[in-house]
Amino acid sequence: MSNASTLVWFRQDLRLADNPALDAALASEHIIPIYIVPPEGSDEGRDGFLRGGASRWWLHHSLTALDRDLRARGSRLIVRRGEPTEVLAQLAAESDATAVHWNRRLEPAGIATDRAVKQSLREQGLPVQSFAGNYLHEPWNVLNKQGAPYKVFTPYWKALLAEGIDLPVLPDPEPLPAVDEAIAGESIDSLGLLPGLDWADGFADWWAPGEAGAWDRFESFLDDVSRYHETRNRLDLDGTSRLSPHLHFGEISPRQVVARVRSEYPDALDDKGTEHFLREVGWREFGANLLYHFPQTETDNLDARFDHLPWRNDPDHIVAWQRGQTGIPVIDAAMRALWATGWMHNRARMIVASFLTKNCLVDWRIGADWFMDTLVDADLPSNTAGWQWVAGTGADAAPYFRIFNPVLQGEKFDPDGAFIRRWVPELAELPDKALFAPWEAKPDTLARAGVSLGETYPEPIVDLKTSRERALEAFQRIKDYE
Ligand code: FAD
Question: Which residues does the annotation list for site: Electron transfer via tryptophanyl radical (predicted)?
Answer without folding.
Answer: 311, 364, 387
